[in-house]
Amino acid sequence: MKNLPDAQLRAQAVANEMSVTPPDISALSPEELQKLFHELRIHQLDLESQNEELRKVQSELIESRDRYLDLYNFAPVGYLTVSKACNILEANQTVCGLFGMERDQLIGKSLYRLVSKDDQDLFHFHLITVFKNQATTACEIKLKRYDGTEFYAKLQSRALNVVNGQYNSFRTIVSDITKRKESEILQLKLQQNLESLWELSRIQNDDLKFLTDHVLEEIKRISGSRYAFYGFINHEETEMEIYSWSKDAMNQCKMDDKPKNFPIAKAGIWGRAVRQREKVIINDYDQDHEGKLGLPEGHVRLTRFAVIPVFSKDRIVAVGAVANKESHYTEDDVKQLETFLAHVQIIAEQKRGQEDLRKSELKFRAVADYTCDWEYWVGPDGALIYISPSCESITGYRRDEFLNNPKLISEIVHPEDQPVVVDHLTKIDGKDCNSVDFRIVTRTGEERWISHCCQSVYGDNSSWLGRRVSNRDITQRKLTEEALRQSETNLRSFFHSIS
Question: Residue 192, Cβ neighbours under 10 Å: how many?
């Protein structure tokens, strides 16, 4: 190949000589003919050598072209050459696969038409930037395949072909980033779900309706749905109680009567999820489906529907349902809802436990705090665990004074009755109720009689939890008994004097 320029020069020289009118051969001597033949032979050999070199170069060029064509066509990313008017001029095999089209289908097509409607403004701004900056510019948008489905793509574009000082086309690299974007979206959703769960756990309001209102809005957000409901299933799994519908559903639903309790045996598709103990996904609600009973008059129209039963210890304890997502419900939607609702159930059970505890404590307070007797509970260490407010009306001392000084109970016992009380405490036995009467001295120095009854308290594991005490003011009874005794004594003395 290095001798190719020399061969070309010699060939040109020969051509130039041939353009000159050849000499008359008949006038040439044998020596001159021999010389001419020799020169022609040399030129012939040069031409043959040149042709060989040209064939070799051509073969290498074809091989190189094929190699780069393969690299272009089967690159791991797509390549497009697009006119300034956004018509596709060239496309490699990879990008054809991304769009699900043959090359002849893709060539000449407007790239704008292959951009998702939601991202067309972003793509337009991308093109303006490409031709303005004349440098490689990237953007991430959704593109449409031939079958109408969409995928996330990263475009890296650069302007090409200067004509009259202006760029008239651009080349773009198309990379499918669907998995990465879906992973980012999933990670964002999980982060939002964790933040929502954290917010739920921080809710101080124990009202379950307040909790479920928050849950409803969250399951709508997680699934991209317009409507939702969330209800609790009773222990027998025969009835669902809904504290509230989602606000959007309440605003749109024209039903006058919105019951809170629904019998599962009479329920349609959502009841099927409970009866069959499995999730239900319906993306064509207008079609016939197992368990579908139709909607009440005035109910909002449903297009898509998903129901997720929530389990706790093999029992369905709640049901979450979402409806009317713009696109199909997927297994991924259900998995996210299942995870979220499972955590919600833990929080809901804690809230219900807190509510039950509050109600139980309210009952306890109603019984204990509003008793006329002086009630208290002494722990194993001698500290007061509880004392009723009625202690003040009997002793004159406030409950906080007793709680701060547990010894005050024994200190106000009448000095003459101290041995009786000590003897009583040493004889307390088992679970039997033990009683004794003694006097106390109130804050004002008044003597009062107390009927004292105490009993040992034991936990579920038979551990001793202290003493439960009930003190009743029997001063009036004692005074009455003393008056009766005095009256009897006076009567005996009277009859004795007569006799």
Answer: 14
